[in-house]
Specification:
- The chain is α/β, with parallel strands linked by helices and 164 residues long.
- It has a single domain (4-156), classed as Molybdenum Cofactor Biosythetic Enzyme, Chain A (3-Layer(aba) Sandwich).
- It has 7 helices and 6 strands.
- A 6-stranded mixed beta sheet has the order 2-1-3-6-5-4, sandwiched between helices.
- It is globular.
- 37% of the residues are buried.
Amino acid sequence: MTIRFGILTLSDRSARGERADASGPALARLLLAENWSVVHQHLLPDDEAAIRQILIEWADSGTVDVILTTGGTGFALRDITPEATRAVIQREAPGIAEAMRAASLKITPHAMLSRVVAGIRNRTLIVNLPGSPKGAIENLQVLLPALPHAVQLLRDDPRSDTSH
């Protein structure tokens, strides 16, 4: 099954050119290694309206099955990715965020500071990931085994009953 992804990196410093975006490309490499496709990849500053706009645009376009955001999920005042995500999703998928935090707590106590959110808009799953390349990859790896079934369900694929 080919899963189509959008990757949205959220970082003021990277958007200003002060540091390279390492997380977005790291996520893309992992997804391509799984033989999935990256349809959209973009970098934005921590601007809630701009984040909401691109999440809506990508989710409503029908071109992606999953949108991964990376960055803006911590305690800093400019970390507003969860709020932007909540504003556009129609249904939350709390088990995804819970699983990522639980797995991350085995690695670092800082995982309890994560405010990641996951949810669904129409037929697209939107998942917030941490901003560091290491944290983004570790969290995505927690999600990988469940992604094909999640996408089958979102696509209303009749074969989804056989993949439990």
